[in-house]
Amino acid sequence: MNFVLISFILLFSVSLYFFSKSRIGYFASSKQFKLKALPKYYAYYLSLWCALPAFIILVSWNILEPTIIKNLIFSKIQSDSLNEISKDELNLIFQKIKAYYSGNFTGQLSEGIKAGADQYKRLLSVASSSKVVIFLSVIILFTGFALKNISNNIHAREGVEKIIRIILFSSSVAAILTTVGIVFSLLFESIKFFTTINFFDYIFGTSWSPQKAFVSDVSAEMSPEELKELSEAFGAIPLFAGTAFIALIAMCVAVPIGLFSGIYFAEYASVNVRKFGKPIIEILAGVPTVVYGFFAALTVGPFFRVLGESIGLEVSSESALAAGLVMGVMIIPFVSSLTDDVVNAVPQSLRDGSYAVGATKSETIKKVVFPAALPGIVGSILLAVSRAIGETMIVVMAAGLAANLTINPLESTTTVTTQIVMILVGDQEFTSAKTQAAFALGLTLFVATLILNFIALRVVKKYREQYE
């Protein structure tokens, strides 16, 4: 149903665009009235007033419909029951009703569930019919409103620009609110975590064993000695060290190769080499991370293990070296493409001035082009570091899950993002310290990334002022 309605919106608005454009063009050519904007703006105005209100109504309806139907069924169940039913029991009954309606119900069937399924079916039917009626009514109403304004020869361009400004403003507000929501959700859950687990034990502890937090309210059910032992089990130093270590290995691969390849394509490569070489490198960015993970786990990891055994070294099947190396290959396009773009953005006048005083091409690149492009290069490296820190699949499949505090690249280790995934897999109790630890790790990762951004902005600002 939703697909049909969205398709109808698109087809109808496109049809209105071409219809209004041709009609306005006819009126303008016949000089019936003097247009206050180009014909295309009248067409945009009509299409936007047709599509946007209908789309907003459709999205709002789909968001509110499940909640309204659920509350109506809850009211019916409560009125038919002689005893008060808790919210959890109501949710369980509602899930059984939905399962019976969809044909996936297993267990003991009661008359109440059958009656609830019949009511659920009726409500869905009424909601579907009402949605279509309201949807079409909104389209007709706002299309008529737009046609009336066009017939009055309004300033269509100003109307279109106003609508676009509202869309851009709404998008900006949505992005800001999303960021604020993420920060506060991390912050509130992290505060709950640190009320149970000592902050300094978390930051400076060297043992990570979140599986010890198996009760929902540790503060009420554990003695002070047990709480201290539990707090010491949430030492995140191994996770921070593993994240930094694997990211460092990845950067040792990605930064030199990406930086040199970007400079080569921008300054030395011929047109044909650049035409085919750059897209081939950028293909690496389109490969799914799970494919890199399989490659690291099935090819790179065993290769290093066999190679190490042949020279007498003990190499783990899941190693930081394998994960970091493959992650570095994945990140190469980020550094290479952005470096190529920022080097090409350096004004040609700087190169010409360097050549005029007798500098060679390599000297010009090293002394003039590279320093001028450094702000953008720092940004590309920062993007690569953020990508490495936030990577999960490659580490899960190639580096292991053990929180080992080691600087040996041949041993297994883990990262912050991997532990967040492992903690939140399956059914979780959000009052447990184990689950809340994932939010504390997320907040720590957020703060670390924020510090990296601040440092990079300082570097960019310094060199930008020097070369502007």
Task: Please provide a written account of the structure.
With 468 residues, the chain is mainly alpha-helical. The protein has two domains: 2-154, no CATH class; 237-467, Orthogonal Bundle (MetI-like fold), CATH 1.10.3720. It has 17 helices and no strands. The radius of gyration is 31 Å and the shape is flat.
Tell me what the CATH architecture of the largest domain is: Orthogonal Bundle
How many helices? 17
Strand elements, count: 0
User: CATH topology of the largest domain, what is it called?
Assistant: MetI-like fold
Distance between the amino and carboxyl termini: 56 Å
What are the secondary-structure elements, in order, as H or E? HHHHHHHHHHHHHHHHH
Radius of gyration: 31 Å
The CATH class of the largest domain is Mainly Alpha
Average residue pLDDT: 80
Summed up, the domain count is 2
Main beta-sheet strand count, sense and barrel state:
none
The shape is flat
Percentage beta strand: under 5%
**Which superfamily, in CATH terms, is the homologous superfamily of the largest domain?**
MetI-like
